[in-house]
Amino acid sequence: MLLAEEEGELLGYIACGENRDAAAEPAVAELRNMFVAPASWRRGVGRALVDAALAELRGRGYSEVTLWSFAANDRANAFYEAIGFTRDGAERTEEIWAHIVQVRYRRSL
């Protein structure tokens, strides 16, 4: 987990690591979750967190990374697409998330 802070104030975090998808190849990592405080939106915090996570994953020897996002989360999905992620066609629902459709994004490292 990587944190972004400014003068002791938490601006956001991101968690990354081994891919939890059962069929994922060993060289494919996962961005597991990310949060940026609304007051820090559009200030580069999210991009800095993702850049740091991708660098960490590259350093661990991964060559690709995936993430899951809710299909209807237009703001997050536009962000992921702007930083080079593309939908790879996979979708899922989970009971814990009230069976809301999630889509998988992928990009090379």
Q: Which properties best describe this structure?
A:
109 residues, alpha+beta, Aminopeptidase, 6-stranded mixed β-sheet, globular
SSE topology sketch:
Layout: E1 2-6, E2 9-18, E3 28-36, H1 45-59, E4 64-70, H2 74-82, E5 86-92, E6 102-108
Parallel strand pairs: 3-4
Antiparallel strand pairs: 1-2, 2-3, 4-6, 5-6
Q: What can you tell me about this protein's structure?
A:
The mean pLDDT is 96. The protein has one domain (2-108): Aminopeptidase (3-Layer(aba) Sandwich), CATH 3.40.630. It is built from two helices and six strands, in the order βββαβαββ. The chain has a six-stranded mixed beta sheet, with helices on one face. The protein is an alpha+beta fold and 109 residues long. The longest helix has 15 residues, at 45-59. It starts with a strand and ends with a strand.
- Helix proportion range: 10-25%
* CATH homologous superfamily caption: Gcn5-related N-acetyltransferase (GNAT)
Global outline: globular
Return Rg in Å.
14 Å
Determine the N-to-C terminus distance. 18 Å
* Overall pLDDT metric: 96
Strand order of the largest sheet: 1-2-3-4-6-5
Unreliable parts: none
The CATH top-level class label: Alpha Beta
CATH topology call = Aminopeptidase
> What are the secondary-structure elements, in order, as H or E?
EEEHEHEE
Total helical elements: 2
- Kindly name the structural category: alpha+beta
The CATH architecture? 3-Layer(aba) Sandwich
How many beta-strand runs? Answer: 6
- Beta-strand content estimate: 35-45%
Give the domain tally.
1
Largest sheet: 6 strands, mixed
